[in-house]
Amino acid sequence: MLIALAAAGVPTAQARERIPLPKPRPAAAPQPEDDRAAAGAEQRPDNEPAGASPPQQPPAQADAAKPQPKPPSACRLALSDAIAIAPSIADITGPGSCGGTDLVRLEAIVLPDGSRVAVTPAAILRCPMAAELADWVRTDVAPLASSLESRLAGLDNFDSYECRGRNRQRGAKLSEHGKANAIDIRGLKLASGRLVSLTDRASPRAIRESVRQSVCDRFSTVLGPGSDGFHEDHIHLDLAQRRKDYRMCQWDVLEPMPQIAPLLPAPRPDEAPPREVAADQPQDRERRREPQSPAPAQAQPEQSPEQAGPEGEQAAEPAPPPAPAKKAKAKARPKKPRAERQSDQH
């Protein structure tokens, strides 16, 4: 059209004003992607059907392209559901050197008889630490709880994984808790509802000593009361690796507190006999309790008129004999000359 207008002698600027602009693309119109797909369909060979999808990779190649999960470790295979309820969790990469691999969430420990010992709350640990803890409970602690005429039902977990320094001190070396390689235990829960605290002086001393011996034989670090002032109310256990397999067992099993005499007398026991039976002669006892009246004053003998005074007054009693005079102090002996004293000493 422009060529025709130019041939007719119409100026180009006027031709632009007369040409209308295209209308905006309606929303219902196909999008440019559809246009490209349509263009691709036009470029397909005649022997390819119109509805065919583009060629896909073989399934083997697609699976190889995806990241494969790591195979379970030997510890993970050994820590089966017959030993502990400990599902695997993803690796943790925390700030600094915190975190770990081959982690599990230890929820319960299965005893040989099939009963479960709950870990409350569940502990996040490395698999070797969780396996050692489960074996300790199954082998050492469960038989020990039977001496208390009850069954072991749970472990009171005070702390497991936590990204922090030792003893929560700023600037301290990374704790084994930050590596998911430690657990803090406060006590043992029995099926009867009793909680046996491992740091309470009132807990049976034999139980605490047995637990101390068992954990010091298994774990490389054991910290309790008397260690550093930070473990007075719980027991710290870990599997830290040190040079020459050095072990640390610092836990003082304290004696029970001495009993203080009560302010009030203790209640009479039920097996004690009645008080009437316990007394020898209750009538004599009651008689002794009665207050005795004071004895009457003895009457003085009457005096004869000769002993009376001139006006009937009684004669004055004779004066008591004078007290013997104190003996005079012995006269001081004359002091010997110095030469005689020295000779006497020799």
Task: Please give a structural write-up.
The chain is elongated and about 165 Å long. Strands 1, 2, 5, 6, 7, 8, 9, 10, 11 and 12 form a 10-stranded mixed β-sheet that branches. Strands 3-4 form a two-stranded antiparallel ribbon. Helices cover 26% and strands 16% of the residues. Helix 6 packs antiparallel against helix 7 (205-218). The chain is built from 10 helices and 12 strands. With 346 residues, the protein is α+β, with helices and mostly antiparallel strands. The chain has helices at 2-7, 12-18, 32-43, 59-65, 74-78, 127-145, 205-218, 275-278, 282-289, 338-345; strands spanning 84-85, 88-89, 92-93, 99-100, 103-110, 116-126, 152-159, 182-190, 195-197, 221-223, 235-238, 248-250. A hairpin with a 5-residue loop joins strand 3 (92-93) and strand 4 (99-100).
Describe the largest sheet: 10 strands, mixed
Kindly state the number of beta strands.
12
Our measurement of the CA-to-CA distance between the termini, rounded to an integer number of angstroms, reads: 162 Å
Overall pLDDT, averaged? 78
- The percent range for strand residues is 15-25%
- Can you tell me the overall shape? elongated
**Would you identify the regions where 5 or more consecutive residues have pLDDT less than 50?**
304-313
Based on CA atoms alone, the radius of gyration comes out at: 52 Å
Number of helices: 10
Reading the helices and strands in chain order gives HHHHHEEEEEEHEEEHEEEHHH
Helical coverage, percent range: 25-40%
**Helix/strand-derived class?**
alpha+beta
